[in-house]
């Protein structure tokens, strides 16, 4: 029986949750969730100068918005320093690591001489095989004894087999002279202790894997499965930067992209399942595999993102969509929706969510709901409320007072009033849009009236009918 899958996301809390980090988290989440495994979170906060509680909070908030839930408590790497140190001392005791007393000046002198002589500048410590009796009473680092012959082969699920000659790897430092563990050691110890079976991360960590494998081997620990995924580039094919637009996940929430659409788009950014573009979370969990990840950098494409988000808005559960819309309003500093507006928005979702690609577009379509009487009229709407149109609206109001409030009944009333005035209903649509929403571009007038109800619809039409000099 195979061991359960355990993946992890291990961000450094030095800023916001980057879009590339979010995709890495998603890939790990999908791989674990699709196999009944665990998805763990580790905050790599060993850089005490740059790590901040605010950045940690931003990362947690970003993951929460994306809906990427993790198992158990988030682990602080910094708080595990004693355990990391313990492993380094264990390796020292086994003779698989050694004390190196070389100073920075000596190391630099070695490199300068090697460069002059055309040799490898990879530092070779004179203390590697020195007898303990020759050790001076001086500060030292602990270095791993790296294999000097043969090669290290990273069996990567995305990149294929990557071979690195061992004579190209130095004896890396495990503990600094002040006794603090280095990041490379901490990562391996944490992954082993957390039971991580699959390390899915950016391919900028590929070279690290060879050095980290040395620690696994020295400790006799089983290697995890590696999958190093290509980075994300901008539309121009260059490394993603601020000039390409938003980088932080929270910016995408503020811009009004639904989380489901964001998950769908990020999953497709560098991974594919045949020709499928639009899919649900359940499908993504079922389909996601490491073999579907491409080797080339993915390109951010806002048009594709918007297209997928539009499809997710259109197919979303109305109540869930309303809850996310409310969260968007709060995130974008517009305040929570009022309860009466929420009720109207929920009843109006049938006509709001079609062809809306973002929440700002949905709110724009819902302007007739968000507005309060007396309405103000935009320029185009005002032009539709001339004297003749206002007269027809006056004729319409008593008819609406007694009509059944169904689409068929309302259409019948409108057509009768239009016929009585020698016009087609299309001529009445403009004034009605203006009366009901204060603007010229709106959902169908019948949809608006059904959502607003008889009392509010009639009141708005009466207001417009008596609005001289609009």
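Sequence proposed for the structure above (470 residues):
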């Amino acid at each position: 029986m195979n061991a359960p899958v355990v993946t992890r996301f291990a961000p450094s809390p030095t800023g916001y949750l980057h879009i590339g980090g979010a995709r890495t988290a998603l890939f790990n989440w999908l791989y674990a969730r699709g196999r009944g495994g665990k998805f763990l979170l580790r905050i790599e906060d060993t850089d005490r100068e740059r790590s901040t509680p605010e950045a940690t909070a931003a990362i947690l908030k970003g993951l929460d918005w994306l809906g990427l839930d993790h198992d158990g408590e988030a682990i602080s790497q910094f708080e595990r320093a004693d355990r990391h140190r313990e492993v380094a001392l264990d390796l020292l005791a086994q003779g698989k690591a050694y004390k190196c007393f070389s100073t920075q000046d000596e190391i630099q002198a070695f490199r300068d001489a090697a460069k002059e002589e055309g040799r490898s500048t990879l530092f070779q410590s004179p203390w590697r095989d020195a007898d303990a009796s020759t050790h001076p009473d001086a500060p030292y680092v602990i270095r791993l004894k790296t294999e000097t012959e043969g090669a290290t082969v990273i069996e990567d699920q995305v990149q294929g087999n990557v071979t690195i000659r061992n004579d190209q790897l130095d004896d890396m430092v495990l503990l600094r002279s002040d006794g603090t563990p280095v990041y490379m050691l901490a990562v391996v110890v944490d992954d082993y202790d957390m039971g991580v079976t699959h390390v899915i991360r950016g391919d900028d960590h590929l070279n690290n894997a060879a050095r980290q494998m040395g620690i696994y081997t020295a400790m006799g620990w089983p290697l995890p499965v590696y999958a190093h995924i290509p980075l994300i580039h901008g539309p121009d094919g260059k490394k993603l930067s601020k000039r390409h637009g938003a980088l932080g996940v929270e910016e995408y929430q503020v811009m009004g992209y639904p989380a489901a659409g964001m998950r769908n788009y990020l999953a497709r950014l560098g991974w594919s399942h045949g020709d499928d573009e639009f899919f649900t979370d359940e499908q993504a969990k079922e389909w996601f595999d490491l073999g579907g990840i491409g080797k080339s950098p993915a390109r951010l494409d806002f048009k594709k993102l918007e297209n997928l988000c539009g499809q997710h808005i259109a197919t979303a559960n109305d109540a869930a969509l309303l809850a996310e819309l409310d969260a968007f309003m709060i995130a974008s500093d517009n305040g929570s929706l009022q309860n009466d507006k929420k009720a109207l928005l929920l009843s109006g979702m049938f006509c709001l969510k079609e062809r809306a690609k973002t929440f700002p577009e949905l709110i724009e379509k819902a302007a007739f709901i968000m507005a309060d009487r007396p309405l103000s009229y935009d320029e185009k709407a005002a032009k539709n409320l001339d004297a003749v149109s206002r007269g027809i609206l006056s004729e319409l109001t008593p008819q609406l007072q007694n009509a059944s409030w169904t689409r068929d009944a309302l259409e019948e009333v409108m057509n009768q009033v239009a016929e009585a005035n020698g016009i087609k209903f299309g001529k009445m649509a403009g004034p009605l849009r203006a009366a009901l929403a204060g603007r010229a571009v709106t959902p169908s007038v019948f949809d608006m009236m059904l959502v607003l109800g008889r009392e509010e619809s009639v009141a708005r039409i009466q207001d417009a009918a008596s609005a001289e000099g609009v």
